[in-house]
Specification:
The protein is α+β, with helices and mostly antiparallel strands and 179 residues long. The chain has 4 helices and 9 strands; from the N terminus they run αββββαβαββββα. A hairpin with a 5-residue loop joins β1 and β2. The termini are far apart.
């Protein structure tokens, strides 16, 4: 009986240890960014700019950063890469009220769990407007970026019900600081 108990305890300990290594992405207070709007057009010269919404509700802007960390193929960035990107941003001076920010933060996990349509090429040389949300893994110190919508040269969209609301909200935020 004793060897069976030892084996069982060993398996349980192993499973607990392995579960601690998983990259569980959630919205966390220790993350730095929540949402991003980005514009890129390389056809007629280089254009790259956008905004981040940080965890405190600040809107950060960037335009033609000299160095920029783009996510890997799995749509992840390290915390260090995100902080380097933030370092190239300017604070817009606009802060989102806490209640409004909480409302949109509550949509992130649902959007991240939803499917995204396949990209469809619809134009050439138009550039791309992209809307993203982010989740953070404290275990691996990495961010996972989820597409909410892209439009321009190629189009795709997240099929979650809240996606359209977030796109309208991010567009309004972007427009409110570019006036």
């Amino acid at each position: 009986m004793k060897p069976l108990l030892v084996k069982l305890l060993s398996i349980i300990i192993l499973l607990l240890a392995l579960s601690g290594c998983e990259k569980t992405y959630v919205v966390s207070k220790s993350q730095d960014i929540l949402f991003q709007f980005e514009y890129i057009n390389n056809a007629w010269g280089h254009a790259h700019g956008g905004i981040f919404v940080d965890v405190n509700g600040n809107i950060l802007t960037y335009n033609l950063p000299e160095k920029w960390n783009f996510p890997k193929n799995d749509q992840t960035l390290t915390k260090k890469e995100v902080l380097e990107n933030i370092a190239t941003c300017k604070i817009s001076g606009r802060k989102i009220p806490a209640g409004e920010l909480r409302k949109y933060i509550n949509y992130i996990d649902n959007i991240a769990a939803s499917k995204v349509t396949s990209p469809k090429n619809v134009a050439a040389d138009a550039g791309t407007l992209s809307y993203y949300c982010y989740q953070y893994s404290e275990n691996s110190s990495t961010y996972k970026r989820t597409i909410i919508k892209t439009e321009g040269d190629s189009q795709c969209e997240n099929l979650n019900f809240y996606s359209k609301k977030v796109v309208v909200w991010l567009t309004d935020l972007r427009n409110s600081i570019s006036r």
